[in-house]
Structure prediction request, 284 residues.
Amino acid sequence: MSVLREAQELLRRAGGLPDHEIDLADTALAFAALDTPEPGFGRYRHHLSLLARDVADAFAEQKAEPGGAGDDLAARANALAWVLTERYGYQGDRETYDDLQNANLMRVIDRRQGLPVALAVLYIHAGRAQGWQIAGLNFPGHFLLRLEHAGERTVLDPFGNLAPLGAAELRTLLKTVAGTDAELAPEHTQALSNRDVLLRLQNNRKVRLLKAQRTEDAVQTVETMLMLAPAHAGLWREAALLNAHIGNLRAAILGLEQVLDLSDDPDRQREAAQLLDELKGRMN
Prediction:
């Protein structure tokens, strides 16, 4: 089986799984392989296993040191940060932030740098391999992580070498990315599902493609997102609008029909029906 076909099958299979059964890092590799199939999965999967092993070793060494840390949040965060940032040299790409490679997990592993959400996938993978509770957060504009243990929790910045962020830092960050009038709300620190983390990763790619006026490539990216989230009415709407924009009317009509089937939003249904009538008229 070719790497491209393996990636497509992995994504379609993940699209039918309950969220908790989705392998976050392996699915991110599948998205990456659609864009860069040549290397294959092997060495990247091996690297993921090394990250998990080395975090386990680093955490055990911390506990074994005289007067060493116990099993607390700081010790877990330190083990993750030491392995990824010190041992393997991962960091946020501040120089070429909008480079498409920063949203491709294979290239992130090759280059040891990427976007916050791509780096977060690696941290989540390494942490969950230890059985730790770690998740991405629904924070706007800048992807953050939450690590939990024994009734305590801390928010960490994957783009900032896993630095912990308190309420004051979160408020400042929110105002930086969302405007000075923005205020922290409970939903900003709610955990994201695996599916939503992966869609947010791919959305970064789509946004950059649209910015570069590569609309056809952006359509392809949305269509790959639909492999993972086939019941996502918002994605079908986006695919329909982009296809209509580049003249793929049949694909646009199919997308709008899916919106009508899947959406329970009356306004969205009305919009889809109106656009559908318009496009069908253009086809006649």
